[in-house]
Amino acid sequence: MNTLLTAENKTDINIINNAYFNNQLPLEKYGQEADIVRFDINGLLLISINVKNANNLTLLLFDNQEISEVKVKEGINQIYCQIKSNSWGFILFPIETKDISTVNIEQINIIPSPPHPVSYWTIGNVNIDIINRILTLSTNKGRPISVVGNELFNDRDYLRDYGVEASAFVLNNLPIGVYNFRVDLARKDSNENDLLLAYNGEKLVTITDSNTESKTVEVEVIYGYIYLIAIDSNKRSGITEFIISEVNRVKDLDFIPPQPLSLIPDESLGRVIANRRSAVISTGTNSRSISTIISDLSLEEKEVPAYIQEELTVLKNLLVSNFTEGSYAVWNLEQGQYRLKWRLKTTDKTNFDSVYLYDGETLELLTTTTNATIQYSATQWTSPETTTDINIQGNKLAIIVLDEQSKTSTTNFEIVSLEKIETSKSFLIDTAQGINSGEINFSLGADFTVFHTLIKCDRPQELTIEIDKPVIIEITNSDLEVVCSREYVSGLVICLEMGEYALNLYTESTIEEDYQLNISTTDFNEFEPIYSEPPYPIAPTLRNLGDDFATAFDFGVLKPWETDGNTGQTWQMGYVYATAHLGHSTIENNIKKGLIDVCTFTLEETSYLNLFHRGVMVTIIDENGIIAHSNNNETGQLQATLETGKYYLQFATNNPELSNYSVSIYLSNSDPNYAD
User: Fold this and answer.
1) What is the pLDDT of residue 37?
2) Is there a domain that residue 527 lies in?
3) Which of 304, 405, 319 is nearest to 356 (CA)?
4) Which residue ranges of the chain lie beneath pLDDT 70?
């Protein structure tokens, strides 16, 4: 135990400053004498401090040459400190007390850092036990429900139907996924039905109440945060304490989460107030004339196609004849699907104030004040929170709020969130469970721009994709790197290493069509070596290669079979034999002019290559350059003697149309005519 005393006759502050801080800290302003205690561990620390005979004290916490004040009171105090250096501690200056006061540093615990750094904040009565990972939310001494609603949702009325007071815990920076946790009751209000709510940015749900003793709950974390809210349904009628423990991420989401966008617009005109939590576009003070709005938004742009200009001219005349002034905000966006959550508030329902959306090509009416049907004060009405999906065909989203005629009322369009969304159906495929998807039906074209599938490989797999109509196929890994990309094919076989992948199927057609998809996998490198020849067995077929030398598919290494367990087997694709005939692989793929496919392999003994190709030109390359090539012939046979080393096979075509090709590769250490 380390003790600090408040009595007089302490160490001179100049001696402390010189000895510990090289006279760099402004300690003299706190007093002339002090007591100091130092420690040499760092990290996130939980420190227990016991104060006796002093109601309120201020300690100086120093971390190397950074200082901060720490308030402590009589009794046990627990504080959390993120300590950076190996030279830190506390300084206590004398105070006048009736008895000698003591400050005992009783215990210091190092808190293990979580694998993913999270942050949190609280409202009301919340107790956090970081060491044991237990959270307690109490309905006793919570905050007024309107205050909690305003803090969490920027809306004082958001929670008012649930109760009168609340406490809340907000956990941020969570990895996206599905979580579960246990909820128990330490105390419960037997007279009222107090609630525990959860909000994940998309929906607010009741996960348990004061009549349920214990429960395991599952929630989706879509945006990287979660709110847990304990609601007191009837003030002072009793106390409920919800205990949260055993919080774990259990699996990935089975869909692509929306991408939140900043609510601060790229440009605006009139009365627009925006921050990270909300944006409000208003017809109030500082609104601009309707003619200025039309001019600034380029509704008279002549470069747009004639049919669009004709439509905009009609709408422009409509705006001029019906509205006097307004405001707008503009977000510069790529083409695609977006989701807007909003509310409309007004002080006068007799006017027909309106909100329009403009994407650079199309102007559409979103809502009017007639939809503000909820009266929340004598002169104010609001609409419900509403979600609208928007298809941006131009290069922007302009939200225009217009005042009909009168300037005596105010209409506010409040943006709760703006997100980019994927117009896809999504499936999760996990090879640990075995893949045989059966028939998956989906649509592409029109509003359905992509079919998305998540693939989790717990071991190397050969993935087979079969589709009833040609589509664009793209496979990316967890680093968003493209593993494979093929245009308008109806099938694909690809070897995937262990990891997570995204399969995306696209079409450029604007006509919606139905598709049927089958996906299956097999273990691609777990075959038994074959000792009998001939006949030559049919090798597995590879349908995906790299697009350049950096991404070339690696067939692996062919070793002399006597040195490798009598199998010669470190070959990644095809068969290897424990005889003179070492390896055989077959490639089938699609290619067109301007594209190349590349594979690579390594030999640890001199071998004969016998290669048959159809529909593609072949070049054999080593580190010194070209070994052999097919002389622009797209069908034929290519032979070469290859010394030990690393080699590349490059495939290309002069055909401008996408076409199929096949290549059969045979390697032998003694037979130059292997497979003739």
Assistant:
1) 87
2) no
3) 319
4) 1-2, 5-9, 96-99, 111-118, 131, 189-191, 235-237, 254, 298-316, 318, 405-408, 422-439, 446-449, 458-462, 495, 497, 522-544, 559-584, 669-676
Domain identity same for 44 and 62 = yes
Tell whether 321 is covered by a domain. yes
Domain end residue (candidates: 110, 144, 173): 110
CA-derived radius of gyration, the chain: 35
Residue 667, token pair as written in the block: 């390697």
Give me 91's structure tokens.
Answer: 């300084």
Let me know the angle formed at the C-alpha of 106 by 104 and 109, rounded to the nearest 5 degrees. 140
Task: Please tell me the number of Cα atoms within 13 Å of 591 on its side-chain side.
Answer: 29
User: Is 183 inside any structural domain?
Assistant: yes
CA dist., res. 428 & res. 252, Å (int) = 9
**Same domain? 189 vs 281:** no
Are residues 411 and 440 both part of a single domain?
no
Q: DSSP assignment of 162-177, as one string?
A: T-SEEEEEEEESPPSE
Q: Is the dihedral of CA 213, 214, 215, 219 positive or negative?
A: positive
* Same domain, residue pair 371 and 450: no
Give me the residue label for tokens 């010394």: 643
Residue 257 confidence (pLDDT): 81
Task: Report the number of secondary-structure helices (H) and strands (E) in the chain.
Answer: 4, 51
Q: Give the model's pLDDT for residue 1.
A: 53
List phi, psi (to 5°) of 361: -130, -35
Question: Tell me, what's the pLDDT at 526?
Answer: 36
Q: Are residues 331 and 431 in the same domain?
A: no
Alpha carbon of 163 to those of 92, 142, 167, 384, 587: distances in Å?
Answer: 45, 11, 11, 19, 67
34, with CB counted inside 10 A (0-12, 13-18, 19+), is buried
Render pLDDT for 267-310 as a digit per residue (tens, 0 to 9): 898 899 988 778 999 987 888 888 888 777 765 444 444 544 55
**Cα 221 to Cα 178: distance, rounded to the nearest angstrom:** 6
Please check whether residues 99 and 141 belong to one and the same domain.
Answer: no
The enclosing domain of 515 has a CATH number of: 2.60.120.380
**413 plus 462 within the same structural domain:** no
For residues 647 and 664, what is the distance between their CA atoms, to the nearest angstrom? 16
Secondary structure of residue 618 in the 3-state scheme: strand
Residue 66's pLDDT is what?
A: 82
Residue that is last in its domain, among 222, 251, 280: 251
pLDDT at residue 302 in the model: 43
Residue 371 lies in a domain: yes
Segments in 154-289 forming alpha helices (H): none
- What is the domain-level CATH number for residue 80? 2.60.120
Centroid of chain to Cα 375: 38
Alpha-carbon distance of 468 to 676, in angstroms, equals 36
| Domain count along the chain | 5
Q: Do β-strands 165-172 and 226-232 pair in parallel, antiparallel, or remain unpaired?
A: antiparallel
Indicate if 567 and 632 belong to the same structural domain: yes
CB-CB contact of 283 with 403 (8 Å): yes
Question: Do the Cβ atoms of 333 and 396 come closer than 8 Å?
Answer: yes
Owner of token pair 């509704």: 299
Domain of residue 314 covers 260-420
